[in-house]
């Protein structure tokens, strides 16, 4: 049953959203009109948020996976008491406004993550729910529970058709993430027309088969039915999908049609909408009783919940002092690392950087109990694992996440864990499969969160597996992402620097790539130089006539090439550049010192696409074809990456 005040609130959200879209002449009114009852019910009857303390640790998380419904979100957040004014609503989708076209993390108060690419919100929310589950199991005691919140998602048909959502749903069901509740705005319409033209599966049966609880609300305007479904979901031992049958564009002349999905209603249709909804208020006018209702049922209720939680936390502090201190270390990432017992390597040792990284990461994990992550069914190959056993329903203290063959979802889940707070998460796979994860890596960079992505087998030296498994363009792809630190260490010293950078990062995701093959530990490689992006590894005197730039597994070959050239009278500087991103962020004076403009005879070497290196050198030796299937011993000869061939290439530089 819809009470008068519920109806007034819902229609206020609807009209605020429609007027925002009309004023901007851009946006998606269909979801605003159809889904308003869902979010109204969730926020006024269930969700606990403190709009004045947006980083409250135990707040419920709400993810608008269907990010095109941002106008509805901003209207809802305005009513809920976030720092979003009516003037902000009027600036929807305008330059430098607080209300951009899709929700942006760190930009608009209350937005838990950047959404818009369908499926990313759903999958990332799985990571948030996992983080809550781990932290609750680790820190909760009796009735004193620092972590006892839910992760709510609003999604549409498009979200659930994305492959990433299917992977994430399977993963969430397997782990029984029961505090994940997904509200499915099921209106049977998508942009191209009726959903049944593209998808006829039984969504409820599908999710139940993946280990989910399923609820169906047949009338999307029935707030009591939505409320009861959410209540049942909160008591479930499984994650829950609540399918709510709605009408896209409800109340508008084009309701039930894809015509109202992605274009403004306009003045005349909005006038008809007001008549159909019996809503007699001016554009951007909010009835006082709506503000009052939201203040009492969202703003003040949430603030009171935060107050009670804070009081309980003080009791927790006194009763469990040591655990409380550990909790604050988790939440503020304030762990001290003692390097005394870390693995040591000396010049001349030979080992693959994947094995070196695995050993060093294991020690970091031992000393930093908030580190959690794993590999996409590739642990024996990447050597990347979490500590303390596997995280699973019967053993929630494990920090090794067995993601399975779910690279798409793994990237987003890692992001969700990091967005939640209290944990630092990483995921790993083969470098060639970063193709599957690129959207999530881009999301991490866009949101400025310090997710860690580790990829082994980073060149054609994968060898016998052949071109399907040999990355070529992948460095170009990931290095081109703004605010993404791609680090390619050459040996143990540089692996230390790479992990230091990743673990201490605050606003930048880090991609670390490692070798399949054994590499020598070189003299003069510099752990701190990795953080600077590039540094001088080798030169015999100040009067060098050329520079060879390289990274990763080719650095040792570059060094051999330089020494070979010296026998013929050349004087070479060798520059290790494990992180072009970090180097580009150094002062111009440092960049000039490493790559002086007076020396234009530069030769960059990497067993991948040549594109990224022309920024630093006119002459580049790379691979702009696909790889081959052959033993590693053949690869260097076939592609011309031997000191002899590289020296000849250098001599031909004019």
Quick overview of this protein structure:
The chain is an alpha/beta fold and 654 residues long.
Walk me through the structure:
- The protein has 654 residues and is α/β, with parallel strands linked by helices.
- The protein folds into three domains: 302 residues, 3-Layer(aba) Sandwich (Rossmann fold); 182 residues, Rossmann fold; 122 residues, 3-Layer(aba) Sandwich (Rossmann fold).
- It contains 24 helices and 19 strands.
- The strands form five sheets. Strands 1-2-3-7-6 form a five-stranded parallel β-sheet, sandwiched between helices. A five-stranded parallel β-sheet has the order 9-10-11-13-12, sandwiched between helices.
- Strand 16, helix 20 and strand 17 form a beta-alpha-beta unit.
- It starts with a helix and ends with a helix.
- The mean pLDDT is 97.
Per-chain topology:
Layout: H1 4-24, H2 29-45, E1 61-64, H3 70-80, H4 86-90, H5 120-139, E2 151-156, H6 157-161, H7 163-175, E3 180-186, E4 189-190, E5 193-194, H8 203-209, E6 213-217, H9 223-234, E7 240-245, H10 266-277, H11 288-319, H12 321-332, E8 350-352, H13 353-367, E9 371-375, H14 379-382, H15 407-420, E10 424-430, H16 434-447, E11 452-456, H17 474-479, E12 485-487, H18 492-504, E13 510-513, E14 518-520, H19 527-532, E15 535-538, E16 546-550, H20 555-566, E17 572-576, H21 580-584, H22 588-594, E18 602-605, E19 619-621, H23 632-639, H24 643-651
Parallel strand pairs: 1-2, 2-3, 3-7, 6-7, 9-10, 10-11, 11-13, 12-13, 16-17, 16-18, 18-19
Antiparallel strand pairs: 4-5, 8-14, 15-17
């Amino acid at each position: 049953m819809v009470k008068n005040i519920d109806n007034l609130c819902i229609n206020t959200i609807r009209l605020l959203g429609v007027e925002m879209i009309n004023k901007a002449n851009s946006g998606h009114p269909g979801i605003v009109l159809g889904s308003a009852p869902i979010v109204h019910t969730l926020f006024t009857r269930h969700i606990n948020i403190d709009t004045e303390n947006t980083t409250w640790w135990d707040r419920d998380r709400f993810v608008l996976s269907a990010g095109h419904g941002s106008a509805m979100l901003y209207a809802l957040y305005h009513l809920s008491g976030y720092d979003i004014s009516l003037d902000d609503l009027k600036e929807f989708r305008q330059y430098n406004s607080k209300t951009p076209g899709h929700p942006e993390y760190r930009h608009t108060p209350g937005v838990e993550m950047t959404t818009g690419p369908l499926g990313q919100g759903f999958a990332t929310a799985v990571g948030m729910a996992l983080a809550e589950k781990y932290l609750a199991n680790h820190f909760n005691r009796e009735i004193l529970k620092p972590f006892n919140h839910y992760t709510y998602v609003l999604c549409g048909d498009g979200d659930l058709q994305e492959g990433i959502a299917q992977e994430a749903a399977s993963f969430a069901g397997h782990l029984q993430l029961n505090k994940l509740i997904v509200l499915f705005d099921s209106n049977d319409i998508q942009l191209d027309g009726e959903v049944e033209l593209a998808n006829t599966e039984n969504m409820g049966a599908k999710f139940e088969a993946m280990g989910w609880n399923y609820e169906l609300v047949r009338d999307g305007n029935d707030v009591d039915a939505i409320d009861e479904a959410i209540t049942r979901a909160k008591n479930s031992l499984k994650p829950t999908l609540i399918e709510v049958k709605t009408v896209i564009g409800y109340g508008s002349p084009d309701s039930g049609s894809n015509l109202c999905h992605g274009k403004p209603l306009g003045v005349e249709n909005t006038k008809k909408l007001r008549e159909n909804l019996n809503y007699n208020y001016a554009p951007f006018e909010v009835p006082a009783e709506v503000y009052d209702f939201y203040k009492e049922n969202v703003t003040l209720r949430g603030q009171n919940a935060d107050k009670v939680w804070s009081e309980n936390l003080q009791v927790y502090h006194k009763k469990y002092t040591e655990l409380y201190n550990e909790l604050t270390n988790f939440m503020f990432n304030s762990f001290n690392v003692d390097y005394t017992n870390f693995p040591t390597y000396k010049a001349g040792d030979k080992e693959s950087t994947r094995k070196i990284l695995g050993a060093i990461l294991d020690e970091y994990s031992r000393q930093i109990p908030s580190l959690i992550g794993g590999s996409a069914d590739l642990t024996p190959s990447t050597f990347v694992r979490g500590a303390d056993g596997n995280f699973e329903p019967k053993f929630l203290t494990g920090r090794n996440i067995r993601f399975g063959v779910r690279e798409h979802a793994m990237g987003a889940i890692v992001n969700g864990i990091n967005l939640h707070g209290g944990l630092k998460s990483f995921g790993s796979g083969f470098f060639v499969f970063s193709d599957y994860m690129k959207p999530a890596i881009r999301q991490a960079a866009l949101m400025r969160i310090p997710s860690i992505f580790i990829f082994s087998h980073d060149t054609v030296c994968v060898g016998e597996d052949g071109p399907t498994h040999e990355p070529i363009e992948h460095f170009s792809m990931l290095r081109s992402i703004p605010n993404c630190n791609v680090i390619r260490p050459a040996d143990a010293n540089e692996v230390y620097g790479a992990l230091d950078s990743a673990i201490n990062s605050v606003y930048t995701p880090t991609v670390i790539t490692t070798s399949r093959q054994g590499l020598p530990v070189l003299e003069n490689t510099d752990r701190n130089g990795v953080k600077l992006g590039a540094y001088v590894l080798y030169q015999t005197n100040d009067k060098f006539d050329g520079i060879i730039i390289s990274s990763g597994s080719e650095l040792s070959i570059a060094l051999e090439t330089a020494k070979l050239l010296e026998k013929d009278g050349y004087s070479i500087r060798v520059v290790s550049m494990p992180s072009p991103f970090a180097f580009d962020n150094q002062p111009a004076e440092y960049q000039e010192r490493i790559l002086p403009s007076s020396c234009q005879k530069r030769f960059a070497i990497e067993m991948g696409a040549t594109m990224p290196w022309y920024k630093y050198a006119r002459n580049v030796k790379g691979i702009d074809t696909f790889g081959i299937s052959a033993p590693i011993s053949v690869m260097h000869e076939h592609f011309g990456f031997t000191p002899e061939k590289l020296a000849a290439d250098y001599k031909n530089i004019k």
